Amino acid sequence: MVVLNAVLHFVAAIGRLVLGACAATGRVAVFAALGLSHIVRPPFYGRAFLRALVEIGFFSLPVVALTAVFTGMVLALQSSIGLSRFSADSAIASLVVLSITRELGPVLAGLMVAGRVGAAMAAEIGTMRVTDQIDALTTLSTNPMKYLVAPRLLAGVVALPMLVVVADILGVMGGFIIAVAKLGFNPITYLADTMRFMEAGDVISGLVKAAVFGFVITLMGCYQGYNSRGGAQGVGAATTSAVVTASVLILALDYVLTEMFFTK
Amino acid sequence: MTETPKIRLRGVTKRFGDKLVLDGIDLDVMPRTSMVVIGGSGSGKSVLIKCILGLIEPDSGSIEIDGQDVLRLPPHEREAVRAGIGMLFQNGALFDSISVADNVAFGLLAQKKATRAEARRRADEVLAQVGLAASVGDLSPAELSGGMQKRVALARAIAAAPDILFFDEPTTGLDPIMGAVIDGLIVEQVKRMGSTAIAITHDMASAKRIGDRAAMIHKGRIVWEGPADRLMDSGSAMVDQFTHGRRDGPIQMELRK
Ligand SMILES: Nc1ncnc2c1ncn2[C@@H]1O[C@H](COP(=O)(O)OP(=O)(O)OP(=O)(O)O)[C@@H](O)[C@H]1O
Ligand SMILES: [Mg+2]
Questions:
Q1: Nearest by CB: A139 against B87, B94, B97
Q2: Where do the structural domains in chain B lie, given as residue ranges?
Q3: Is B107 within 8 Å of chain A by CB?
Q4: How much is the ipTM here?
Q5: Which of A107, A108, B18, B254 has its CA 20 to 30 A from that of A9?
Q6: Which residue of B has its CA nearest to A130?
């Protein structure tokens, strides 16, 4: 009897967790749909969009650039250690360009921006929520979803692919530096190999991923901030949740998108 | 025929979780008059105003503005009703990412009632009315003192000359002279501009200056309603205890012993 009760409690707890997760997913989906619908319906807030674009795109450049360069360098170094046994020289160039454009460019840029921008967005919107500023917007004939959320979502979708273009170039450059300066490759041959193995499909799939990640990052930042409760502590919790949920979603969606693009 | 009230509440009820905050509020506010709402901290005054504004959805009851039940209006019509209401939030709620002048001009620009230049001129004008120099307009809200923020919030609320005005503790945090100036400004909005106002206040002097009528809310209900100048001799033991600030009386503060 006691055992049966314990089992029932356990099952009930799992049920509650699953239901809670479904409800949360539903709320995020509704929020996302609402935000998207405001992107296409006037009035448009051009200033808010540009401000978000600069914040996400421009100010993330240094951190994304550094991440990309070092990643490219490490890739070249690691693969030279692993591949030298097979003496396939062109393999290093191809490995670097493939991994950067397909995977590491978008994923690493996404994770860095999630930490930077997702957190800042959740904190800003969360503070506006707990200090009644979002209510004040409503009383001043301004829809907060349209004024705060829609421009940020759009800016995320636009800015991340641009950042990833930069990350792709710098990542390949990082690999090039190590290959030429440390591993003694001929620069011309290395570049020629790089160009030979770089494919439009890889780059484009990476940019599509970036756009999706940009949406996820800004969505989680806005959603967590918008729904934060309870003063400074609530805003802090919202900030953490925004970064964690966005990062996990980026990695999960990366798998889903790779499956879609590369397995027939 | 008697005039229809500008604002008419019937049985407005709101609970948060299992906490009953509003328990069937009935209240009428006639056009071009001001109603002062008093009541203990946490008695639901701010929630009441947010319900009328549509920021909080009441669980039951009806809220009529100009005879229209706003709770049953479609969203865009409700939007239109809301555009005619100015609100001063208890903590100011100024937008801290834009300048003071942009804050004051925000509603005018959002409602497309003015061009940028006109809105800026109007902002300077209203800032002057609340006793702030035009140079303050270029500062950011975080650079102002608490009392100045309150005045900017007041300026923002009245900038579009709304039909209905809500003030959530307009004079809290102001010195007595500035408090009197702000009270005067509120009275002027009602008397000269013909607005209808609801003001929440804990300041009895201010209540008598602003209010035509007054109501006291306690435990989610209106326990007294009458002319504001009768606040000090209302004949209600609860109001008496509140307005005279006595420790003992029918209202027991929930303090831990
Ligand atoms: N969003 C909310 N969620 C849960 N509870 C809330 C919410 N807003 C208000 N409350 C509760 O409702 C009650 C009334 O709050 P309200 O802000 O209306 O008080 P008040 O009368 O304005 O008090 P004060 O004079 O201190 O401003 C409080 O007990 C508060 O805890
Ligand atoms: Mg209050």
A1: B87
A2: 1-84+164-170+194-257, 90-161
A3: yes
A4: 0.91
A5: B18
A6: B93
Ranges of H-type helices in chain A? 2-40, 46-53, 61-83, 90-99, 105-113, 119-130, 133-139, 144, 150-181, 187-197, 200-226, 231-262
CATH 3.40.50.300 fits B1-84+164-170+194-257, yes or no: yes
Chain A: closest CA distance from residue B4 (Å): 24
Work out the minimum CA distance from A65 to partner chain B, whole angstroms. 28
- Report yes or no: A262 and A199 within 8 Å, Cβ to Cβ: no
Question: Residue B168 — φ and ψ, nearest 5°?
Answer: -100, 100
Q: Tens digits of per-residue pLDDT, B162-217?
A: 999 999 999 888 888 888 988 988 898 888 888 999 999 988 889 999 999 999 99
Interface residue A133 vs chain B (CB under 8 A): yes
B138-158 pLDDT tens trace: 999 999 988 899 999 999 999
Which one-letter amino acid corresponds to residue B49? I
State the residue for tokens 């923002």. Answer: B156
Q: Is A141 within 8 Å of B79 when comparing Cβ atoms?
A: yes
Let me know: does B43 contact B217? Beta carbons within 8 Å.
Answer: yes
Q: From ligand 2's centre to the CA of B168, what distance in Å?
A: 7
What is the tens place of the pLDDT at every residue in B219-229? 899 999 999 98
- What angle do the packed helices A105-113 and A61-83 form, to 10 degrees? 140
d(CA A151, CA B80): 24
Q: How would you write B97-126 as a 3-class SS string?
A: CCCHHHHHHHHHHHCCCCCHHHHHHHHHHH
> Is residue B1 scored above 60 in pLDDT?
no
Q: Is B42 in the pocket of ligand 1 (CB under 6 A)?
A: yes
**Cα(B46) to centroid(ligand 1), Å:** 6
Entry pTM:
0.90
The closest CB to that of B93, out of A132, A141, A142, belongs to: A132
What are the chain A neighbours of B79 within 8 Å (beta carbons)? 141
Query: How close A214 comes to chain B (CA, Å)?
Result: 23
